[in-house]
Amino acid sequence: MSVVSELRGMGGKKRGKRQPSAMRKGDGKAAAIFLAPWFIGLFLITAGPMIASAYLSFTDYSLLAPPEWIGFDNYTRMFEDPRLINSLKVTFLYVFISVPLQLAMALALALVLDRGLRGLPIYRSIYYLPSLLGGSVAIALLWRQVFGADGLVNSVLSVFGIEGEGWVSHPDYALGTLMVLNVWTFGAPMIIFLAGLRQIPQMYYEAASIDGAGKWRQFRSVTIPLLTPIIFFNLILQLIGAFQTFTQAYVVSGGTGGPADSTMFYTLYLYQKGFASLDMGYASAMAWLLLAIIAGMTAVNFLASKYWVFYND
Amino acid sequence: MTDSAVRNDAPPSKPTLTEVAERYPEPSGKPSQWRGRTRSILKHAALIGFGLVMLYPLLWMISSSFKPDAIIFREPGLIPTEFTWDNYTDGWNALLHPFDHYLLNSAIIVFGSLIGNLVSCSMAAYAFARLEFRGRNLWFAIMLMSIMLPIHVIIVPQYILFSSLDWINTFLPLIVPKLLATDAFFIFLMVQFFRGIPRELDEAARLDGCGHGRIYFKIMLPLSLPALATTAIFTFIWTWNDFFSQLIFLTRPDMYTVPVALRTFIDATSESSWGSLFAMSIVSLIPIFLVFLFGQKYLVKGIATTGLK
Amino acid sequence: MITSMRKRTMWRAGAVLAAGALALAACSSDSGSDDPSDEPTDGGTDSGSGEQVEIRFSWWGSDERHTLTQEVIDLFMEENPDISVVADFTDWGGYWDKLATTVAGGDTPDVMTQEERYLTDYANRGVVADMSTLDIDTSMIDPSVLQSGTIGGQLAGIATGINAYAIVADPQMFEDAGVEMPDDTTWTWDDFKEIAAQISDALGDGVYGVQDYGGNEAGFNIYARQQGESLYTEDGTLGYSDETLAQWWQDLVDLRESGAMPDGARSVEIAEGGPEQSLLGTNTGAMGMWWTNQLGAISSAAGRDLVLLRLPGESEHERTGMYFKPAMFYSISAETEHPEAAAKFVDFLVNSPEAGALILSDRGLNINTAVREAVSGQLDPLEVQAAEFLAELESEIVDGPPAPPTGAADVPEITGRINQEVLFDTMSPADAAAQFTSEAGAAIGQ
User: Fold this and answer.
1) Residue C335 included in any domain
2) Integer angstrom CA distances of residue C181 from A61, A221, C172, C199, C286
3) For chain A, which end, N or C, has fewer CB atoms within 10 Å of the first or last residue's CB respectively?
């Protein structure tokens, strides 16, 4: 409360000063106040464990005994680990296919469920339901009911006389079913898109329609450009999330990343190394390689965003 | 080209607050012709059909939760041949505490996280979106980096940290970080939304003599209700479903939360109570479903429908 | 303004170092002490003095085990009002993550449940105490079983009970198929393959003779032992020939090709489903390989009583291969502040007839022979069957396999994965054997 009144007071004092430079001067102080909780969290809670994991990546650490410094050994081992290379392949394939698909699905449904139809709240809730299940242990069974050897998909296929595979547990298709699972849980980006659509001032549409723009033109010239910050946000977040995909693969494959490593995601392998093989030093090194990869991809996207993301400010 | 068309129509640079408010009328547009009606019926049909496909796994789970344990896998069809409430009554009481105990524990953590994320993340987001300070881009990059390391390598040092603070077995390790905006995801989310709010509103507020505190409270927060609602809903759902950190930080059964309790129904090495697991999973879905159902009206209360006062 | 900004930056830098240092210091100092053997004996003057002590007991399992274990705890606390035991339980997967993390954080549970494949890791790193120095009565435990928890000369864990890896068969299926139940003391691996094929042929689509069993190294260990080899040697190296392992996987390929076993995708799907979704559990198969304490779970899933059979080949080669495996171990933390209370609790778990009457065969057939006899009347028919099966085996078993070496925790995962390569024909049995030897060898540092 006191912060609030102080801030209010601060605002009061600024009355009359309009020059941008004057405002900017106050910005530093205000930023310190607004960022205070985050700074405290960063330094007290986030940074320590991150630094610790960086340190551990240079050690042999079994969790059960104190870490021992081994220099770059973990990092050099990574390049000779065929299963790590495989897990990178699996992860990249997954990221590049399922993220765009999921975003397209989420955007399409957000547009359909935005307005102009009765019962939209119900539809939105229903379409969001799968995402609520998230990483529930039940997902493993549900997915087998759909993509298993005797699952729904094969029952439908058998109507057409096609004998399907046991998709979920076949090395050639298991990853595909996880991609479908990811697309199926499009609820989170859809919600963000929905919120973003509502953030677009109506006046822009009116202005556009006065200019004689039809629905499609309005979509292209108002909706999409004004939604780009949200599209960008979703892209970055889904990218970061997809590179770290763990729960779904863990649950569906029973923690094995199988069959035969076909769904062995990078983070799942990292987890296995850290907790099952008790090689947390190696897992930490893997984590920092992942961070480098994700940070690189994110940086590229931020650079590219200058050319397609439109901010109102 | 299209952008500039829009921009040409944008209001002059320094309007007052009230002038801006008047520019946002209520949305209009009801399809009035019968052609619109057939179209909407078709739309409904498509939405329902697609919805059923989407919901099949969930329906199977609901149906299984009413089957006796023994036949869940022997008769995996959607329609139960035998119907029983046992899974619900057994599941509710199967663990050391009745299930409402775990629901309550989860609710406490969710409530704390909700407050934490809404307040601390929106504050940080305001700074990143609207204030100019030294090293802003660097701090922003650091913020994003903090969500790029997988939890599995962070959790052990975190455990050591919280253990040295004597926080293990309390809800503190699960709530305090949220109060300190460690969920950078939501900061980024709100930054994007804040940046979508026309800057002329701030400028107008400044003309009216508002400081950053007032701009944040009176303009940013009300105008980004959808973002706040998104944050609230996601925080609720993700905290409700978060298994790993709750498993690690809570060791006493009376502190267990819903996801941790649900895991204790099954075990890969011995007999599992699938029926109870399904039944209690559904029970635990109900609160989040309701939150979503009622919370979403704020999601869609965008700038277009919110008046300024 | 600028100076205050700089000050803040300095302070933050300090905080980073502090937080980091805090975490690191705890990493290296709190976790496992280097000399566990002398810890427990001098630490505990507390219990017995009437002062209230609290110990934590952690285990894995599902709701039934949680409930009955809590009853045992309550009983213990009634008898020992000065000791309060706090339960800490979760499922198998979560258990090991949590245990390793708490050990790293210096919060090792005072009493924990261990498993063969991890016990060596925990023992060799000094996490668990040498229980022979504690006041636990082990006189009623079979010395060979007690030996299974002895690592590096220290009693790292006391077995909770014993299991054997066996064939579980559904007599109803045999009858439906018109196939006679085999004599399990004499049947050979070829008999086994033939019987499985006959059942598949007789019962038609969707019903199989046997479920894939290649993903559990216990079966191979028995197979190797029958031929005078073994999975691990006493020296902690691999003790089989690649030809034996290749032949083991060749049998599985033959079974799959004859239709006696489901194809790869179906096999993987079934294997992940546990007892409830197994072929036997869903009445779609006649045989599978399981641990004897899983008989009850599979039977209740199947809705009918199943029977235990010896693995094939027990009289085919040089010797018998079947062995007793400790189902789990009770271990005590090397760093517990209350070693005497912890020991008292373990002693109660192992020796108390009342505890035994609650646990029954949930943690394997009780290793305490006195308790086993005392509770035999309370076992249900399936548990009696398992107990009798194990009793019959006792005279046939030549020896117990040595405790798995450090790093053996990875071997089940390697076995499962390479078995899948065989199931999907992406590796020939010979290549799979070579790959397994190279990976398992690397895991145990051979």
Assistant:
1) yes
2) 52, 76, 10, 11, 11
3) N
